[in-house]
Specification:
Two copies of one chain form a homodimer. The first copy, chain A, is of the alpha/beta class and 572 residues long. The first copy, chain A, folds into four domains: 186 residues, FAD/NAD(P)-binding domain (3-Layer(bba) Sandwich), CATH 3.50.50.60; 118 residues, FAD/NAD(P)-binding domain; 120 residues, FAD/NAD(P)-binding domain (3-Layer(bba) Sandwich); 100 residues, 3-Layer(aba) Sandwich (Oxidized Rhodanese, domain 1), CATH 3.40.250. Chain A has 16 helices and 34 strands. The first copy, chain A, has a five-stranded parallel sheet. In chain A, strands 9-16-10-11-12 form a five-stranded parallel sheet, with helices on one face. The first copy, chain A, has a five-stranded antiparallel sheet with strand order 23-24-27-26-25, sandwiched between helices. The radius of gyration of chain A is 27 Å and the shape is globular. The interface between A and B is large, with 108 and 108 residues.
Amino acid sequence: MMAANSVRSDAKKIVIIGGNACGLKTASRLRRRCPGYDITVVEQGRYLSYGACGFPYYVGDVIKDYRSLMGGAALRDEAYFRDVKGVRVRPLTEAVRIDREKKAVEILSAQSGERESLSYDTLVIATGGVPTLPDIEGVDGVQGVFTATTVDDAVAIKKHIEAHGVKSAVIAGGGFIGVEMAEGLVERGLDITLVKKGASFLPAMFDEEISLLIARHMTDNGVKIITGENVAQVLPDADGNLAGVVTESRRKVAAGLLLVTKGFRPNDRLARDAGLETGRTGIVVNTKMQTSDPAIYAGGDCVGCTDIISGNAMNLALGSLANIHGRIIADNIAGDDEVFPGVAGTGIFKMFNYTAGRTGLTEREAVKQGYDAVSVIVPGPDKPHYYPTATLIIIKLIGDRQTGRVLGAQVLGAGEVAKRVDIIATALTLGATADHLSKLNLAYSPPYAPALDNVIVAANVLKNKIACLGRGCSPIRVKEKMDRGDDFIYLDVRSPAEFKNMRIDHPSVMHLPLGKLRTDAETLPRDKEIIVGCMSSLRAYEAQRILEAKGFTDVVYMDGGLVAWPFEISRS
Amino acid sequence: MMAANSVRSDAKKIVIIGGNACGLKTASRLRRRCPGYDITVVEQGRYLSYGACGFPYYVGDVIKDYRSLMGGAALRDEAYFRDVKGVRVRPLTEAVRIDREKKAVEILSAQSGERESLSYDTLVIATGGVPTLPDIEGVDGVQGVFTATTVDDAVAIKKHIEAHGVKSAVIAGGGFIGVEMAEGLVERGLDITLVKKGASFLPAMFDEEISLLIARHMTDNGVKIITGENVAQVLPDADGNLAGVVTESRRKVAAGLLLVTKGFRPNDRLARDAGLETGRTGIVVNTKMQTSDPAIYAGGDCVGCTDIISGNAMNLALGSLANIHGRIIADNIAGDDEVFPGVAGTGIFKMFNYTAGRTGLTEREAVKQGYDAVSVIVPGPDKPHYYPTATLIIIKLIGDRQTGRVLGAQVLGAGEVAKRVDIIATALTLGATADHLSKLNLAYSPPYAPALDNVIVAANVLKNKIACLGRGCSPIRVKEKMDRGDDFIYLDVRSPAEFKNMRIDHPSVMHLPLGKLRTDAETLPRDKEIIVGCMSSLRAYEAQRILEAKGFTDVVYMDGGLVAWPFEISRS
């Protein structure tokens, strides 16, 4: 905690490298804490404090004016930081080298070309990330190839589309920004092809069941997806504008725009050159956000963060964390002992009318970490079924069988996803078990949530699985069994009308409505594995319990039902 | 935790009184746990498992068909519970008396008039609540006076409005249901007058600052509010239909409909008559939901719950809790040791385009409980300012100065309120401090949240206050000082354009934009208290720090700024 009412009038020199979220938050907070300090921020670019996460929405024309991405009610320029924040900001100024012995930073002005040395008592490195640029043949001199790193990039992309009447684009990379850009450009009427090396979407973020649903929603909305290869070459037209790309397998895709979104790596060059400890995930910092040199702090996208569940270092480039880092750094420079506890790996993105969010560990990662992981897939309306705006969401919840601890979640759908992600992120950060989650007193009223919130239902289903009352089976495993031709029954327990309307077409499929199961179960074979399915898996679980009560011993239900079935469905 | 894969085939007799959320959840869950048990549910009314919380939306015509309030995809009637759930349900059957010695319930069929005795091994009381009916002169025989307790009530209200072309209504009572009903009826085009005894809206749920904003939003949307008195008398027309009401002060209000929403009290008559322990908040149960007779459980609206923060007993009549209770009761009857941890007092309601939510203790209650309570009022957009759907919400967050523990919150506005309430409800249930809250890794992307979520900003402001960096003053106190004519300066630090556009009109008001404060502070008197104000209190806090750095010693900022100022504002 901070010293009571501390107004410090000692005069230290603080130099901050980087004028975006972390750097400027550090400067502003530190000014409020230590009015006597001399605070200088050097920023390589021309814009300060911009919302890079807003670029897809600017390019997609949801946001009309790029200037609105800067600052809040007032434009945040040099004058603003001088007059309001009492901070000296030097844009278009590159930090070239850190001299730790002399405690000085060599800077280079892009405008005057002059070099200068800024001495510091404490230095803050907030240099963000640099885009990963794959080796693509022919990009030099071709108009229409962009990353989406800076405000200038975002403005140039939009200008290029408008100036050249671009009708089709290729997006290289299937990360958050790639998917968000795809949506934005489809909404503008462009024909989009997304090219990515990996087979799954966001495999570090989502397990396969959810990843497949994400991919399906992209194609349902008209995005063409090419997986298993990168963009290898660009093809210009006679004017030097992009005409198309060629993939590694020599596939040609016509496109007037190529957006390279292969992710970012931490911009740790200055730190490395200065001999500070760095790693795969960026500059290494302790929980106080201090580098291996106690006079140098670092925060934002350029540092590695600890995953609070696995304890692993990870790089999570998010404006939210950069702001939290900045505040902690300022408080520690002011003499506090503020600690950054690490990250839950929470992420969210909009994908047409769907939202996809996640927090904590995936099931895959939980198993890798040695947890006895149990998972459930629970679809349900995000409000009571009778409320007109009730919309479906799917929660995959992952827990530890031994302790009941909540390890992670993935949430997807057209309904209210963000709330459920944040409830679970908060809960797992505070060490909650499935039992805690299942008894939360959440805000209930029909316009906002069903009586039992989706999170509570998912926690109950998880508890059932941990207690071996419910036994589930991933749709991925069911599909594998069908494809292999295993000898089992997929028992669909929905109503005849529902079954007629849509169903899985496979020889293993049998139909017997739940309401008949208590009387007609004897028509089912006792010598075969039965996998029960319904729409959401609630009735299938009920059916599993009914069959077990009747002495059937080899019964499971399919997690998530038809709603979460990412493969083909027959409709009539 | 439950015994692994337990299918119990012993045959116990279970009787459940009440066929709504808690009773039917108990029955359904218990059937899945104990297939051999004999389970009977007796329900006094004709409808089962209905969503009473949906009534305002049915009456307001948001929900068209009352039948959709019952059950899920399928209608939940006797046949459904028999065929699907394997549970015997007896609607239109009253439980008249419990004979604890004989372990039997005397029941009376409304259809046949026959009495019967049902013996039990375990009994569950889930009798819900009964509406509080004030003494109103002349109600007998008058058409058009209703409570909103049962499906029949809801259907009758709607029918009465339509049959008689009702144009105006009086709502007696200003609780959640009263406010929700007011909205529904205004949206239908009715002229609404809300009559309530208390001066504040929902004083047990919201502190005065928020309560005043709630009342203002009601009147802004055309609801007339009469406080300080009850409806005393109804006036019929010649046909015996309601023509108007008379209040205690003999004020007449024309109205074709009177809705009495004076709240509910726990329906504990059977329990009391049977000698079970009951209290002010309903039937007394232990953490296993067992009454003072171990063979009798009770849950839902008829029981008292423990407030997890204060430890006090409270009655929180919510379908969400009733469902959680039902599950715990079933598990305990099945032999588990499931515990209900208590409630956070979370509530939410829709009020025109606003949402009002709350959790934990109010500041008033926290002080009463002996906490050294600190509170902040933090308005802000619910998404980045540049995102088109960004909308304002206000968070009042309450914490304990000694431990930093989060004690409660109230959230109000047209933006995404429910998410913030649920994050804080989850956090305080798990014992979070403001520091925990301020470092949460929440889901960030422009369509969903600002980079620093409103919850995180509120937690930071709370930490600032606890550390005495920020010093706030409630708008209520500022208004009192203005009304008393205290000698102080209200320093508005917004831009000249903002000040011209809207401001507080009072002799104490001075204007000096934040950007001039570092240079022109010397124009301010040093011998007077300065209360700094801006739009949201962010700039005012900055101003407070600047003035303190310049040696001003008596400076505070007004919590929540003009956004949360519930009194008159001059506009030009």
